[in-house]
Design goal:
With 435 residues, this protein is an all-beta fold. It has a single domain, classed as TolB, C-terminal domain (Neuraminidase), CATH 2.120.10. Strands 1, 2, 27, 28, 29, 30 and 31 form a seven-stranded mixed beta sheet that branches. The protein is globular, with a radius of gyration of 21 Å.
């Protein structure tokens, strides 16, 4: 029986759906949520662990197995000058860190530096991300924590006019989506020249793919992506190798008769073991659901439902952001339940509410609640997940019991309790009351 439970802070256990197809590691509990950094409007306060005047909102964090966190901010004052802003990469962990690189748009006060809203981090703490000045020439970057510096990545012989979805492997190879002429392709670069894996018909009319969506890069360097084939109504998820060969993970009902899936969201994730997580729309009932597809050892993939919208489960809505999956088959995703927006994790047998609107967290300003002072979304972007089961996320906060006051947006880590050995709140934090 698949069950739904909340963190041990709430101690609730309710029946869900008997949908598990494969056993995976037991779910952790999440008793410790730690703030890494917080931004707010300068008229309200200076924020925390970032320069005053820093702004980030529609971003997604990254977290590695050593619990190092990376995120980007599109507005970072340079040398304290609020009228001269760049775009920055923040790197740190356990509530300590800062911007390790700020990209300066130059002397033009109207110029804007665009930076990837979703960086990627590997086991060595290397971070892949991109920048673009005013939407012009894009540059792929790799931050090396050992050197303490970011360096541009040479993409020759490829010359994409735009870059998206950079994903870095433990070997330092970076997969990405690029714009080539009028169309898009997926490519990767590491030691040696960049390699184009696949492209759509707008690049080459001989391609098998009408369109290529947002990819994820696997630990072995392969790239997983949703593709449209005959037209935009026929879609598959495929895994591509550098030589252009590919394997189908799953197809929709329009492509494969009998498929239970009417559609797939455009974004997805791939875990270190090759499992693919994506939000689907079921052919029966037209319901949205979170699914994990695991390699079956015979060249195919086995489907496991993690959660779906509708009773008897708690999920009333799934956000339009990709889920995250780790090597043990744990899947994290944004959703809405009866209490509002929340982040859940599931393994196909149990479903756990990690954190949600109204939950108490410790911040630099004292006890706070996850939430907004207005009708803005509570969470930002997609959650990140590491091998420990730790979940990094971005959320709005306000003073406990006072949703009318704005405390801005924080980057947090919800730690898997089974892996925590000591207290990690920094000095000066005021723990909220026990629930």
């Amino acid at each position: 029986m698949t069950t739904i439970r909340t963190s041990t802070r709430v101690q609730a256990l309710l029946p869900l759906l008997a949908l598990a197809q494969a056993g995976h590691a037991a779910l952790p509990t999440y008793d410790t949520v730690e703030l890494q950094a917080r931004s707010n409007l300068i008229v309200n306060d200076d924020g925390w662990n970032v320069p005053p005047g820093t702004s980030f909102n529609s971003i997604s964090p990254a977290i590695d197995d050593a619990r190092r966190v990376a995120f980007t901010a599109g507005l970072v004052p340079i040398d304290g000058n609020l009228s001269h802003n760049g775009a920055g990469l923040w790197f740190g962990g356990h509530a300590e860190g800062g911007f390790v690189k700020i990209h300066d748009p130059g002397d033009d006060p109207e110029a804007t530096m665009i930076i990837a809203d979703t960086p990627s981090i590997n086991a060595s703490g290397e971070v892949a991300y991109y920048t673009s000045l005013d939407g012009g020439t894009y540059q792929l970057w790799k931050y090396d924590p050992a050197a303490g510096a970011s360096a541009p990545v040479n993409l020759l012989p490829l010359t994409p006019s735009s870059i998206g979805n950079p994903g870095i492997t433990d070997a330092g190879r970076i997969g990405f989506k690029g714009r080539f002429g009028l169309g898009y392709g997926i490519a990767a670069v590491g030691a040696g020249p960049a390699t184009l894996y696949a492209w759509d018909t707008s690049v080459d009319e001989g391609s098998d793919y009408a369109y290529i969506y947002s990819p994820a890069t696997a630990a072995d360097g392969r790239i997983v992506v949703k593709v449209s084939t005959v037209d935009y109504d026929h879609n598959e998820i495929r895994v591509f190798d550098a030589d252009g060969s590919s394997t189908r993970v799953v197809a929709d009902a329009a492509t494969s008769t009998g498929s239970p899936f009417a559609a797939f969201d455009n974004g997805l994730d791939v875990g270190a073991g090759g499992a693919v997580a994506v939000i689907v729309r079921l052919a029966e009932g037209n319901l949205r659901a979170v699914y994990r597809f695991d390699p079956d050892g015979a060249g195919g993939y086995a489907a496991t439902e993690i959660a779906r919208v509708g009773a008897p489960g708690p999920i009333t809505e799934l956000a339009q952001f990709a889920p995250a999956v780790n090597a043990s088959g744990l899947v994290a995703f944004r959703a809405r339940d009866a209490d509002g927006e929340a982040i859940y994790v599931g393994n196909g047998e149990e479903l756990l509410r990690v954190v949600g609107k109204g939950d108490l967290v410790a911040t630099d300003l004292g006890g706070a609640q996850i939430g907004q002072h207005d009708s803005s979304p509570v969470f930002s972007g997609k959650p990140a997940l590491n091998a420990n089961g730790d979940v990094a996320f971005v959320a709005g906060v306000h003073p406990a019991g006072n949703p009318g006051e704005e405390w801005g947006t924080g980057v947090f880590v919800a730690y898997a309790t089974q892996a925590i050995d000591d207290v990690i709140f920094v000095d000066g934090f005021e723990a909220p009351p026990a629930r």
